[in-house]
User: Fold this.
Amino acid sequence: MTQRYWVIGGEYSDCAFSRIQPGTERVCGPFQDELKARMEWQRLTFRDNCAATERYTIAIEPRIGGR
Assistant:
């Protein structure tokens, strides 16, 4: 099985990013390659209406089966 990538995040309650605002959670994916996940991360992170309290990250799903 190949690795899968997810873009996760949303709007947080403050700039400490300790608690996400309910209802703003976003999960995009899975993406089969890192480049596509990075393109989606970039789109979400740098869009025009992005607030200072929004944050997104790329999560890599662990491989199953050893390879």
User: Anything to note?
Assistant: The mean pLDDT is 91. The CA atoms of residues 4 and 61 lie 5 Å apart. The first helix runs from residue 34 to 45.
